[in-house]
Amino acid sequence: MAASTLLEKLEQVIPGFHGYRQRALLREDDALVRGRVASMLDSAKGRVERMIVVMRKKNIGAALRLDDLRLELIKASQMLKHAKRDGPFEKGEVDERVLEELLKCDYDLVHLALRVVERVVNLSMSLEDREFMDKLNETINIVYELENCIKKREEIISVSKAV
After folding, report:
1. Which residues of the chain have pLDDT under 70?
2. Per-residue model confidence as pLDDT tens digits over 82-112
3. What is the DSSP string of 59-99?
């Protein structure tokens, strides 16, 4: 996908995002992306917590698995909120290739977070236990993908520090 298309899609989801085009705003763009995705994950976590309360009365196994999802959402959100803020963004010195990689990674991150939120909303509409557990496990796997994307993003940023 072209960088301009990714940028347009990210600008629709993250108000104020500049796409790392302005060197002086690199740090702010980074914070906007991390903050928006963390907010989406926190919102999903809130829905999961409400589902846990209801599910404890119906199916304790599903409630425990929902708690696993809740913990993964907390972990991913914290990874974003407490990411290192030093390095290339401080000085505005980042290679153009690195910015393109970061833009793609940000798009993937936002896309995965939106999928997680959508899946969590759809979880509450599932009635049959087996279908619910299948959707729940799929949602947890998406959160794992998201965590890997966060790690990849941090790698991109840390490698750009070394350059």
Report:
1. 1-4, 19, 21, 23-24, 84-94, 125-127, 160-163
2. 876 655 555 556 677 888 888 899 999 999 9
3. -HHHHHHHHHHHHHHHHHHHHHHT----SHHHHT---HHHH
Distance CA 137, CA 43 (A): 19
Whole-model pTM: value is: 0.84
Q: How far apart are CA 83 and CA 32, in angstroms?
A: 13
For 75, list phi and psi in degrees, rounded to 5: -60, -50
CA 128/CA 135 separation, integer angstroms:
11
- Cα 145–149–151 angle (5° rounding)? 115
Q: Which residues contact 116 (CB under 8 A, 6 or more apart)?
A: 40, 41, 44, 73, 139, 142, 143, 146
CA distance 98 to 75: 26
Between helix 129-162 and helix 96-123 the angle, nearest 10°, is 160
Q: Which tokens sit at 108? A: 């993937």
**Rounded Cα gap, residues 115 and 98, in angstroms:** 26
Q: How far is CA 132 from the centre of its chain?
A: 22
